[in-house]
Amino acid sequence: MKKESIEIETPEKIIFTYNISSTGTRIFAYTIDVIIQIVVVVLLILLVSSTGLFSFSLSSDGFSRELNGLLIAFAFLLYFFIQWGYFIVFEVIMEGQSPGKKIMKIRVIRTNGEPLDLPTIILRNLLRAVDAFPFYHLVGGLVSIVDSRSRRIGDIVSDTIVVKEMIFNLKEPNSFTVFLTSGKEGAFSFFNKKLNEEDLYILRRFLNEKGHLSKEKQDEIALKLAQSIKKRLQIQEEIENPLVFIERVYRGHIDENKE
Prior knowledge:
Blueprint: E1 5-9, E2 15-19, H1 23-50, E3 56-58, E4 65-67, H2 69-93, H3 99-104, E5 106-110, H4 118-126, H5 128-131, H6 138-146, H7 153-158, E6 160-164, H8 197-209, H9 215-233, H10 242-258
Helix pairs in contact: 1-2, 2-4, 8-10, 9-10
């Protein structure tokens, strides 16, 4: 039986409910990505051929071209590298999305609640070779139709799932939240990277609900969140007070969104 949603618990013990992307939506997203790849390959071939590195001739009717074998080999090699690197690069820099996935508003996430990392992205995309057999992801499409969570082989092996993107209302924590720091003077104003909406939602929930936690549980979650944030934002500063650190990061993002 097909499942329409899935609950995922983050390492910080916060549970999210995601709507699972349908196979049809994934096919549309993949088609968009394939079109983009083909356009890029064609443009690069035209660019390279214009430099004179490859010779070609026009027939008498002016329409058909006789490309030499080297250019054909270059085209296939170029498409091979773009096809394999395209999804890996974009899913890294766009945190689980490709241009096609972004347009269709879907995203790859890990089912264990941890952030999507490079080894996982590489693994799920290397297995496209299996999913794509014998053509246009036929095997992967059939597996996703049968699988209760609409996963292809690459997702099953790498423990990932494609879900509909969640959009959160990013606003200041509720009025009952008391910050330990005050105003912009306590906030980070510059980050090497940015937290995404899901990360900020986690911080907001923690800041709103920390008063309902025991001191031990609050300190435990705050330390995990702070260490995770520091790593993701590449902040070199040592964490003296995890809760203050979280507040400063949160304020820095919110203040920047207001500007």
